[in-house]
């Protein structure tokens, strides 16, 4: 078939078939980290059985001198069309929601509900929550001098964001949620050690559903223990999940908590893990120290739709080609 005969068909296809809008693009990510049954055991110098020695965080054992302090934060923000930031800094941080968030179910998440909203091709939102459920406390002493503790440390953080773009622009969401547990303690005699035991569960997802490029979905999780002396020298650091502890040993790691999932293509990248973790410091010299536990999750998403001609423009181009084809046919007659 000659081009002069094909051209009208192409033109009609452009005028009719290509006049439709591109589909919505959206990027979605979430991270939910739940640390449970965390015990911090102070092992005095000369103690060889580190599994059964009493656990404490006040006034006995290795000589802890201050009550533990805790803080949790939740922050959520959106790029246009919804802008703004909501933050909280409490042991139980109030749920933080990005200003302008529109949720799939229509209702804003409630504090400590821990229920994910899920991805949506029509909603833009960012929200996070963080809570320190309990702290380790001593409520008495056994006959052998070991402490009786009433609770162990439990924390939870969640971050979620969904970004969709139907306006041929760029939209994005950023959420950060974290807890920090801090305590000062004394080592009365050189050779004392500090042991950490906990169970944890982590679920993350990065997802993109779009016919376009230039989008990103990322979820990140980190758990870290540090001990410093009063001169701020680092004595111990365990970024949980990498198999290595500076100034100590990793006794067991069920999975890599300090990890990230990410995608910039049409894909669904999930991650989940749960299990037991344990680590212990090397011998510490006599003196005063500061112990910090930090648990944090975050997500970032961005949706960008490629700029395309409006349907009316495409239709005009198609009609123009029809006119060119007709003119060529009249010229031949």
Give an overview in words:
The chain has helices at 3-16, 311-332; strands spanning 25-43, 69-78, 84-90, 92-97, 125-134, 137-141, 147-151, 153-165, 170-187, 193-209, 216-229, 234-239, 245-246, 248-253, 259-263, 267-281, 287-304. Strand 6 and strand 7 form a beta hairpin. The chain is elongated. It has 2 helices and 17 strands. Helix 1 (3-16) runs antiparallel to helix 2. Helices cover 11% and strands 53% of the residues. Residues 6-23, 50-66 and 308-327 have low confidence and may be disordered. The chain is mostly beta strands. Strands 2, 3, 9, 11, 12, 13, 15 and 17 form an 8-stranded antiparallel sheet that branches. Strands 4-5-8-1-10-16-14 form a 7-stranded antiparallel sheet, with no helix packed on it.
Main sheet?
8 strands, antiparallel
Task: Estimate the global geometry from the Cα principal axes.
Answer: elongated
Please state the oligomeric state of the protein chains shown: single chain
**Low-pLDDT windows of residues:** 6-23, 50-66, 308-327
How far the N terminus sits from the C terminus, by CA atoms, comes to 18 Å
Rg measurement, Å: 29 Å
Tell how many strands the DSSP assignment holds. Answer: 17
Order of helices and strands: HEEEEEEEEEEEEEEEEEH
